[in-house]
Write a structure and sequence with these properties.
By secondary structure, the protein is mainly α. The chain contains 4 helices and no strands.
Amino acid sequence: MPVPPESPDEYQFKDDLLEKLPQSMRRIVLNDRLGPNTVAVDEIMQRALAVESGWEAEAYYDTTSSQLNVSESETDTGGESESEETQEGGESGGYTNKDYIGDHQLLSNPLCQ
């Protein structure tokens, strides 16, 4: 007679769950003191879902903000543009690195893909 598979103990299940979370999410969950010794599986899952939801909201607002900035610059008719200023031999001020993506924008989030 076959032996049914043994279910993992609760601690091991929570430990495995935390191990499989993305590192940045795991850091947030553990910093909230939601470890395998302290809370139930449901509490870990609820916090992980809340973090994921927050990432999705942040990505949405980052996209919305970028779109607003583009449409504002397209409709801006006041003053000289940087290209006109540069053509006249002037120096442009400010940060112009095109690779800059912002302080809080996610570079990659496997849960949001």
